[in-house]
Specification:
The complex is a heterodimer of chains A (about 250) and B (about 260).
Chain A (H helix, E strand, L loop, with lengths): L5 E12 L2 E12 L3 E5 L6 H8 L7 E6 L2 E2 L5 H8 L2 E4 L11 H5 L1 H6 L4 H14 L15 H13 L5 E5 L7 H18 L2 E6 L2 H7 L2 E6 L2 E6 L1 H5 L4 H7 L11
Parallel strand pairs in A: 3-8, 3-9, 6-7, 7-8
Antiparallel strand pairs in A: 1-2, 1-4, 4-5, 9-10
Helix pairs in contact in A: 5-6
Chain B lengths: L1 H30 L7 H11 L4 H23 L8 H39 L2 H7 L4 H39 L4 H10 L3 H27 L4 H31 L1
Classes of the chains: A alpha/beta (about 250), B mainly alpha (about 260).
Chain lengths: ~250, ~260
């Protein structure tokens, strides 16, 4: 068995917005080909972690290393190059309203490759069929339902066949059936493309289904990391309260 | 002494905002020289800002020229100078009203649209999405709009000047019984190339201002739908004010 390299390393990440301290020393490693799911309550900083991984935010303290490179040491240009390794699915898909579905999916190809429009359209159609969408290429994003938008967003994220996929609450806001469709797609992509992925969610069903390891974020730090089995059988009262969805326990919301 | 605190805070925020907006404009101009050149985006913005503003600019300019002729005729008659109306209309349109009124109209039309569009993109994470796909949002979104503003405002001003002068001609000759030949001669008699060119330079500056301010406000929107509305309003108000303020200084410089 080959040794897996560390693709993403978060080291002692601290981040605050004004007086609000969001991350207080986050440490996490993601190995090549692995799927890590970060769980935690709403507003606890999960999205903030994701934005640090892709360099949209810079930490106040601590380091973000991608394939061993510290993002803070990079120029805008080099950071841009590193971003080409990523594909990201945003919570509400963040499709570009003014262009059609196939132009959305093929966007990165148009910007970074010399392929013709016909070639890009063909690739876009193929990626769309990978996510179970046919015949929507010429529609505009405003014509699509929430589930379809997410799937187009997914097709767009994988269009350049990235090494690393980031998912921001992939199943939030979807009906149970569509949520399962997305979970299956994510698992499917993992098999087919051998990508490394980091997802954030508070949907435990989704987490158990797609994760190799689950990490729980609580009070700005990683409370526990483990396989789905380990998390399910956790003795940590914070983890237990969260995964079982109990209003009372050490995590106070009110 | 609360007002001193408020004044200090206001000044700091004003200077900071102006600095940030200028830096964004500078970055967008530098980005214009980096390949790929984004021709398609530029064409689209030129159509949005320029072509789509033509109807409203034409109507505005027509009535401006007409009222200018009417006002100067009735006013100048008080001291027997009605024969100068043609000159007044030509000089006023090319030097001042053409560029400034066109600028104000386009600011309300296209400037508001730019701020709203970019603001909506910001709050729906589309701008972050661009960044994650290794596309510079400033180069993709702001550069074409700034360039389109700089190119299309002078073009629109030319239309304005012509239609305004034509409007003034129609009113003077048809309604106010001026002599057609004399009026036309007066129009061109005292008109210098400098008048027209200075007007077009002003228009180009206004174009850059409108785009830069509207894009900056939209790009930095925060706070959902309400934030977008706020950004749009502020973009239009600030653009209009800066058009009028810079107009004075440019006029002093050119004339």
């Amino acid at each position: 068995m080959s040794e897996q390299s560390v693709v993403i390393e978060l080291s002692d990440l601290h981040k605050s917005f004004g007086a609000h301290q969001v991350l207080e020393g986050v440490n996490l490693e993601v190995l090549s080909g692995e799927s890590v799911v970060i769980i935690g309550g709403s507003g606890t900083g999960k999205s903030v972690i994701l934005k640090h991984i892709i360099g949209l935010l810079a930490p106040d303290r601590g380091k973000v290393l991608i394939d061993g490179t510290d993002l803070a040491t990079l120029s805008e240009e080099r950071l841009s190059d590193i971003r080409k390794k990523f594909g990201m699915l945003f919570q509400s898909a963040a499709l570009f309203d003014s262009i059609s579905v196939w132009e959305n999916v093929g966007f990165a190809l148009r910007q970074h490759t010399r392929k013709s429009d016909a070639e890009i359209r063909a690739i876009a159609t193929q990626k769309l069929s990978m996510v179970g969408l046919k015949g929507v290429e010429d529609k505009m994003p405003s014509d699509l339902s929430g589930g379809m938008k997410k799937r187009v967003g997914l097709a767009r994220a994988i269009a350049m066949e990235p090494k690393i996929l980031l998912y921001d609450e992939p199943t939030t806001g979807l009906d149970p059936i569509m949520a399962d469709v997305i979970n299956n797609l994510i698992g499917d992509l993992k098999q087919r493309l051998s990508v490394t992925s980091v997802a954030i969610t508070h949907d435990m069903k989704s987490a158990y289904q797609i994760a190799d390891r689950i990490a729980m974020l609580y009070q700005g730090k990683i409370e526990q990391v483990g396989t789905p089995e380990e998390i399910r059988n956790s003795n940590d009262p914070v983890v237990v309260q969260f995964i079982n969805g109990r209003a009372s326990g050490p995590i106070s919301v009110l | 002494m609360d007002w001193i605190e408020a004044l200090g805070r206001g000044t700091i925020s004003f200077v900071t905002e102006t600095g940030q907006a200028s830096l964004t404009l500078w970055r967008s101009i530098l980005a214009a020289f980096r390949p790929p050149l984004g021709f398609r985006n530029l064409m689209k913005q030129m159509e949005e800002i320029g072509v789509n503003s033509i109807p409203v600019v034409l109507i505005t300019a027509t009535f401006t020229g007409m009222v200018l002729a009417l006002q100067s005729h009735t006013g100048f008659r008080r001291f027997n100078a009605e024969s100068l109306v043609g000159t007044v209309v030509a000089l006023s349109m090319t030097r001042e009203l053409g560029p400034v009124l066109t600028g104000l109209i386009v600011s309300g039309r296209a400037g508001a649209a730019m701020a709203a569009e970019l603001g909506t993109m910001r709050v729906t994470e589309q701008i972050d999405a661009l960044a994650t796909m290794a596309v510079d949002p400033i180069k993709y979104l702001i550069t074409p709009r700034v360039l389109a503003g700089m190119i299309m405002l002078p073009v629109l001003t030319v239309f304005s000047d012509i239609i305004g002068i034509a409007g003034g001609y129609v009113i003077s000759v048809r309604l106010l019984d001026a002599n057609s030949g004399i009026y036309l001669r007066r129009t061109t008699q005292y008109l210098e190339v400098n008048d027209i060119m200075a007007g077009l330079v002003k228009a180009a500056v206004f174009g850059v201002l409108i785009s830069a301010i509207s894009c900056y406000k939209g790009f930095n929107t925060a706070g959902g739908a309400q934030g977008v509305g706020e950004a749009t309003t502020r973009a239009v108000v600030i653009s209009m004010m800066l058009i009028l303020i810079s107009d004075y200084f440019m006029t002093a410089f050119f004339f």
